[in-house]
Write a structure and sequence with these properties.
Shape: globular
Number of helices: 3
Number of strands: 3
Distance between the termini: 26 Å
Radius of gyration: 14 Å
Mean pLDDT: 68
Strand order of the largest sheet: 1-2-3
Largest sheet: 3 strands, antiparallel
Order of helices and strands: HHHEEE
Number of domains: 1
Strand content: 5-15%
Oligomer: single chain
Structural class: alpha+beta
Helix content: 25-40%
């Protein structure tokens, strides 16, 4: 039995479509562009690449049999573009979180941004998703 069901996978895939500014990728290059050479491409990374990588990691974890002990992505796909090291991953019996440290480079242990506090937070994909949350 998989950790997440087919309905969970569909819901997470739908998050990609619903996320502001994100559409379904047309090519692998749109999902995994080359490393960002300058600040000009930082917006693309922040708005498209990082949410897709975290969601892909989450989808792969849900596809695994049981609860994966490590992020089920390898190579460049597993790297956080803001940090150059693997995306963060945490799985318990209650759920899975995959996150990027985000533009500020600080690991907030998978805590998403809080607009009210001005804290940038991490870029997080989680299952089950928190009520009222957006990817």
């Amino acid at each position: 039995m998989r950790f997440g069901g087919v309905g969970d996978r569909r819901e997470i895939a739908a998050q990609i479509v619903r996320a502001e500014g994100l559409g379904l990728p047309k090519t692998n290059e749109e999902i995994w562009p080359a490393p960002v050479p300058d600040a000009q491409n930082a917006a693309l990374v922040y708005r498209r690449l990082v949410p897709r990588r975290t969601l892909l990691g989450l989808l792969n974890a849900l596809d695994a049999t049981g609860r994966p002990k490590a992020l089920p992505l390898m190579g460049e796909e597993s790297l956080d573009p803001f940090f150059g090291k693997p995306l963060r991953y945490h799985a318990t019996a209650k759920g899975i979180r995959v996150w990027s440290v985000g533009r500020d480079g600080y690991d907030e242990n998978g805590m998403a941004a809080d607009p009210g506090s001005g804290r940038p937070g991490d870029i997080v994909a989680a299952w089950p998703a928190a009520k009222g949350s957006k990817p």
